[in-house]
Write a structure and sequence with these properties.
Length: 182
């Protein structure tokens, strides 16, 4: 009769070693999950930038088509250096507007149009993994550029002489993303 009583007292739960091992395994799995989450956040930011740029390029195409249809092809060159956000039906939710001095921007992860540079700018949120030649805050800068055939080879658009091919949203500097652990 004493045997069942003795067995009940010996089963007291986890040993300290077992508890430490479980905590260690959970910690390692948590670190792996956090590392992967960081990569997903960087990839999401990069995809968001590409989506906005693609939407603007679509808007440029629609604007050109509309001007051609209304026989206003001669006004296409007026869009060069304009604010590309105006071509969208709705600006991105993180667009803060037009500014004339970059020092007015105090946070990352926002779009704005720099009127002094005629550039659409995105301030990168995860700048540690973003590489560019620009000094200062990590950012992507784009501008609407007229695409034309320079018939007189003077490196500028001359209405009536040069043939307009369209518009494009071009980056002002090269940039790239470097993912951690790659």
């Amino acid at each position: 009769m004493n045997l069942p009583v003795r067995c009940r007292f010996q089963q007291q739960g986890f040993t300290l070693l077992e508890l430490v091992l479980v905590i260690l395994i959970i910690s390692i799995m948590g670190l792996i999950a956090i590392d992967r989450l960081l990569n997903y956040r960087i990839d999401a930011e990069r995809a968001m930038i590409q989506t906005v740029i693609g939407n603007i390029r679509s808007g440029l195409g629609m604007e050109i088509a509309q001007r051609v249809a209304r026989d206003r092809i001669g006004t296409i060159n007026n869009l060069e250096n304009a604010n590309p956000i105006e071509l969208l039906a709705q600006p991105p939710s993180n667009y803060i507007g037009e500014i004339d001095n970059e020092s007015q921007v105090s946070r990352d992860g926002v779009w704005y149009f720099d009127t002094a540079e005629s550039a659409l700018v995105y301030r990168v949120r995860f700048g540690d993994y973003f590489k560019t030649r620009l000094s200062g805050a990590p950012r992507v800068r784009h501008r609407i550029k007229l695409v034309y055939t320079d018939n007189n080879r003077n490196n500028r658009f001359d209405p009536g002489i040069d043939h307009v091919s369209g518009l494009d949203l071009v980056p002002l500097e090269d940039y790239e993303w470097e993912f951690p652990n790659e």
